[in-house]
Amino acid sequence: MSENFHIARVGGAGGVADLVFIHGLTGDMVTTWTSPGSDDPAGDYWPKWICEEVPNLNVYTLNYPTSLFGKWSQKEMTLYDRGKATLDYLASYRFGKRPIGFVTHSLGGLLAKQIVRTGFEASDEAWRSIANSCRLVIFLATPHTGASLASVFTFAFPRISSTHIQLLRSDSSELDQLNAAYRRLASELKIKTAPFYETHKTKNLGILIDRVSADPGVGGAELVAVGADHIGICKPPDRATPPYTSIRRHVFDFVEDAAKRQKQARPPSHIPVQSHELAAFVYDKEVANEIYVVLPFDGETIFSAPIRFVIETSSPKSVKNVYLHLELADSLYLHQLTRSVDKIGAGREINVFTDKGRNEHIARVLYKLPSIGPQVRFVLWDRIFAKDPTLIPIDTPVTLKGGEQMVVSSKILTALPVALTLDGEDALPWSGEIKIHFRNGNIEEFTAVKRAENRLIKELMRSGVQKVRPTEATFIGFKKFSKHPVEGGGLKILDADPDSIMGVNVRITPRGLEPHGKVGPL
After folding, report:
1. Class of domain 280-519
2. Strand 100-105 to strand 405-413: parallel, antiparallel, or no bridges (unpaired)?
3. 108-124 residue pLDDT tens
4. Helix count and strand count (H, E) for the chain
5. In CATH, what class is 6-263?
6. Whole-prediction pTM value?
7. Which of 380, 369, 504, 375 minimizes the C-alpha distance to 447?
8. d(Cα 235, Cα 46) in Å, to the nearest integer?
9. Surface-to-core class of residue 479, CB atoms within 10 Å of its CB (0-12 exposed, 13-18 middle, 19+ buried)
10. CA-to-CA distance for 481 and 300, rounded, in angstroms?
11. Of 75, 431, 100, which is closest to residue 275 (Cα–Cα)?
12. Domain-by-domain residue ranges, the chain?
């Protein structure tokens, strides 16, 4: 569960419509929409299946602070306040410029309804645009009654006060008002509404959202049963199983309608400005967004690895006020160092702003370019730094009943997320996240690297501390390093030579690493 707003692009580029996935109370932007055990070639994250099968569509997934629902259950925050916070976040990324649809799970459906209602009634033009652009809402086991909502809260917050749960059951006036407003707006704005409900019991709580609870009361909305529990209803095992088949059909119709509207509203000579897709590349080959950097750590040396931002546009006109926003751990950025990128920026009229954000351990870097000319490719270099692997050994002293002392050894694996957002005037922003892991070793001896990682995976599987789910990743490293000049000589930094990069694409499974392609001259 996340305590921050974050929008990430799943796929699509320059589509005629936007589709946003909104998770429920106990989920997040990734695990909610991941189907464990799926052997689909595109992976088990099924929003990517939608990207593959429905062309001309931009697909996003939204993280929001799930604590907002906990506060609401205890009457500390209203649905209206929650909707305003989400609307303001979406508006900051300039949604509402094209038709928008929502795929929601559980209480994420209430959030979608509140977005529509609050936006429609707002005086803020950007908020109204989001509501007026809504054309599709898919509800996967969304509670539309006070009693069913209380059941979901009981499942999500088993320790929540029974008084608060009873209040949800007896005082559903706010929920009733939201339902009435959505029914009216769904008709007025012509929002296609597709509700689904579960038919299997969830643990020992029974069926949380039955047919009656899942009915939003919207005319023309056909309730569809799904053979799954409250958690599994949003995790279709394959592309031939409901509710995926129905969702795909609704999304197809949504995009088709958006394309017709665009054709009617826009003269043929108008060419939109589009932001470029954000993705990770090594040697101009796109790689997975899980990057494992293999470096010869010695506990003292700080290694500097190059990163390159490539911004390009196919627009026939200049794109003004281009921003590239980077947010990452301050230990990775070391913004107190003098940076060569500042000198490059001055020479090319790039302004670089760095601060520690809301958290002193997070670096927020903003590259501002006054404009990028038509049909050009612009390259900006920078570096990230690392001193240790993202593998933390922990020794915990334990006293047995007989007084004997022992030490329990364990490991914690961490990943350092790098969030990227690219925006420009008259262009919808692209957002993405790359997770960086560091491992100790030599990429030229990949067999040894693989052997060490397989041992680690076996340890994790035996301990059960962390699950190992199948995922695509890229292991990279460097053959050559040079000394980085540092004023005062207090730090020992080695710069990796970008021309010496090597890599291997792998699939990480509970059985170990499965290499399936080389990157660079390895």
Report:
1. mainly beta
2. unpaired
3. 898 999 999 999 999 99
4. 12, 24
5. alpha beta
6. 0.54
7. 504
8. 8
9. middle
10. 15
11. 431
12. 6-263, 280-519
